[in-house]
Amino acid sequence: MTAPDIAVERLGADYFADPYSVHARLRAQRPVTPVVMPGGPGAWLITGYAEARAALADPRLSKHMPDWHPEPGSIFAALDLHLLNSDPPDHARLRKLVTKAFTARRVERLRPRITAITAGLLEDMPGRAEVDLLASFAFPLPITVICELLGVPSGDRDDFRAWSATIVANTVAPEVFQAHATAMIRYFMALLADKRHEPGDDLLSALIAARDDEDRLSEDELVSMAFLLLVAGHETTVNLIASGVLALLLNPAELARLRAEPALIGSAVEELLRYVNPVNHATFRCAAEPVEIGGVHISRGDPVLVALSGANRDPARFGDPDQLDLGRDSSGHLAFGHGIHYCLGAPLARLEAGIAVSGLLARFGSISLAVPAASLRWRPSTLIHGLEALPVRLAP
Ligand code: HEM
Fold first, then answer.
1. Largest Cα–Cα distance of the chain, in whole Å?
2. Which terminal Cβ of the chain has fewer Cβ within 10 Å, N or C?
3. What CA–CA distances, in Å, run from 27 to 1, 323, 336, 367?
């Protein structure tokens, strides 16, 4: 990556906790800046809303990263062949196989089950005690839902939490990454073999059937799909719920507003998506040919990252963007991305977060942070913006 006339910004570990002030500073200079991520590679970082939206819809920005794909035949190929890593026409072929399972209407049928899981988790949380809301509520809800949908035994979820946290982190020793990625691949291979033998009424069994009948998914594509759905299905929603509750606790007037007017929940979830940004930047893209974005020349082969959380706080698009306002029109936010890779699970994430936040507020009349906000720790990932833990005190 070369930027002869623009200084490269080296982002430090403070970027994990607060990407917003970094984006605001960079955006004020220019909406597209060359950066080096903490512990990670360099890329062009897009922080302006208009430029971000245009980049996400630009077919010249490809998901094919020539230097970054594992050798064919290597075990890691089984994590690499999913729709979020694919360009057309493969992307459409892969996405078509799973689209039906995630339409708003199909997902709405999960409402009773999601409500029951939420009620069970809330029941298990004692009032007046200090609890880590992330570990005891925000994490188990989406992981249980996605495990049930896919047909993954939810007893294995703590393993998934560890493996997937490693895979999305920036600062992990290569041998730890290798060990966790291999464990996850082996796990899925064994699970898929079991399901081929004894199919269940679940999405993975349906995908195996699609593969076996029409030869549309290779074995590696099948493992990749399972991996993507499981990781994307929980890493993100966990943080919408946990960081969303934190945002409400830090904005007591907005929390009181939502308590007084529970019907605001739909608009509240959209604003929380815009404001807390569970996915900080979209996944890597690569310029398949020279591109100009925001007046900046990007050479062929250069990696590009779209800062969704930068776009969602761009004052040119959202007035007073650092203010949480549950009643504002947040439509057009980019928290779920844009273009052909727009989040497949958006209806599910919205449903889960709405049920979770409403259920929590209805069950506990008082929720407060158990530690000073400044001492909360954020995960060492630039992709996922999420808390390590959310200690709170709850009272009925
Ligand atoms: C609050 C929760 C969620 C957020 C903020 C979120 C965000 C995103 C974003 C930003 C992308 C596009 C990434 C890019 O273009 O590089 C994406 C794609 C995707 N998401 Fe989500 N997601 C959430 C929940 C879910 C859930 C519950 C699922 C369920 C399986 C899911 C499955 C996917 C899949 C499969 C893709 C790839 C789509 C494609 O490449 O065509 N996501 N998500």
1. 60
2. C
3. 20, 18, 21, 36
Mutation test of ligand 1: which of 236, 272, 280 has the most ligand atoms closer than 8 Å to its C-beta?
Answer: 236
Residue 396 CA to ligand 1 center (angstroms) comes to 34
Measured distance CA(291)–CA(297) in Å, rounded: 6
CB-based burial of residue 252 (10 Å sphere; 0-12 exposed, 13-18 middle, 19+ buried)? exposed
In the chain, the amino acid numbered 290 is P
Q: Give the Å distance between the CA of 146 and the centre of ligand 1.
A: 13
The closest residue, in CA terms, to atom 38 on ligand 1 is 341
Atom of ligand 1 at shortest range from CA of 84: 40
Question: Does the beta carbon of 381 lie inside 6 Å of ligand 1?
Answer: no
State whether the beta carbon of 336 lies less than 6 angstroms from ligand 1: yes
- Does any ligand 1 atom lie closer than 6 A to the CB of residue 232? yes
Q: Which atom of ligand 1 is nearest to the CA of 63?
A: 16
pLDDT tens sequence for the chain (396 residues): 655 578 899 998 899 999 999 999 999 999 999 999 987 789 999 999 999 999 999 999 999 877 666 666 666 777 788 899 999 999 998 998 888 889 988 899 999 999 999 999 999 987 767 999 999 999 999 999 999 999 998 788 888 888 888 887 777 788 888 888 889 899 999 999 999 999 999 999 988 887 656 556 788 888 999 999 998 988 899 999 999 999 999 999 999 999 999 999 999 999 999 999 999 999 999 999 999 999 999 999 999 999 999 999 999 999 999 999 999 999 999 999 999 999 999 999 999 999 999 999 999 999 999 999 999 999 999 999 999 999 999 998
Contacts of 395 by beta carbon, 8 Å cutoff, 6+ apart: 127, 128, 364, 365, 366
- Cα dihedral 208, 211, 213, 216 in deg (nearest 10): 160
What are the backbone dihedrals phi and psi of residue 238, each rounded to the nearest 5 degrees, phi first? -50, -45
Peptide bond into 89 cis (omega under 30): yes
Supply the DSSP string of 302-359, one letter for each residue: -EEEEBHHHHTT-TTTSSSTTS--TTS--TT--TT--GGG--TTHHHHHHHHHHHHHH
What's the CA gap between 305 and 282, in Å, rounded?
Answer: 6
Q: What's the gap in Å between 190 CA and the centre of ligand 1?
A: 25
**Protein residue closest via CA to atom 20 of ligand 1:** 343
